[in-house]
Amino acid sequence: MLNEEIVIKTNKLTKTFGDFTAVNAISFEVKSGEIFGFLGANGAGKTTAMRILCGLLSPTSGEAMVAGYDVYKENELIKKHIGYMSQKFSLYENLTVRENIEFFGGIYGLSRKELKEKGNDLIGRLGMEKEANKLVGSLPLGWKQKISFSTAILHQPKIVFLDEPTGGVDPITRRQFWDMIYEATDAGITIFVTTHYMDEAEYCNRVSIMVDGSISALDTPHQLKEQFETDSMEGVFLKLARQAKRGE
């Protein structure tokens, strides 16, 4: 449920590696309960920016607050108040579904009682009672995806970062996954998502598009399509790419 609380705030956030500037003075805010799309081609800087916001990488300069904590001084506290899911799903394939849930729940600091209650509830909601004691490696890709997302929000974080979460799955499974995202936002969780599927950008409340380390556009999908006079987010992205190539 979207509200006015700011849960991510950056001001001229910058990351350099030697002479290369991966993230170039980006500034934006994300509201609580928002689905915020973070788009960009490979090498645009979005993964580096996400790693900073997750407390995994220190910025070179600028400011950033995540869940009320400073990325310079309180990165360990940030990690406790967020969830994270990558394209590789972050699951251990040689552990069972239940063992994965217990492992990640333990990392997030849940008690044994909470792990049992939340684990049983999660398995029930996913309809995976028969698969609970099967190795994750034996399950279809779509199921792994759902388990990974569910474990990332098991501890009810303020924010969950999703890095290309639907890569490699079929369109129907992708749609089902977005239904899970909507359920999470209804529970007050903020979604920060990178994706290379332009149709998924349409599902976001707002979208930021990075080009060469900088934010080239940021608005609702509807406003961006109007601004760039196109009927799709893919059209917006292509026009920005052409502008960057021309050096505009």
From TrEMBL:
Gene3D superfamilies in the record: P-loop containing nucleotide triphosphate hydrolases
InterPro entries noted in UniProt: AAA+_ATPase (IPR003593), ABC_transporter-like_ATP-bd (IPR003439), P-loop_NTPase (IPR027417)
Key words, A-Z: ATP-binding, Nucleotide-binding
Superkingdom of this protein's organism: Bacteria
Domain ABC transporter stretches: 8-237
Gene Ontology molecular function: ATP binding; ATP hydrolysis activity
SUPFAM superfamilies hit by this protein: P-loop containing nucleoside triphosphate hydrolases
Protein name: ABC transporter domain-containing protein
Classification lineage: Bacteria, Pseudomonadati, Bacteroidota, Cytophagia, Cytophagales
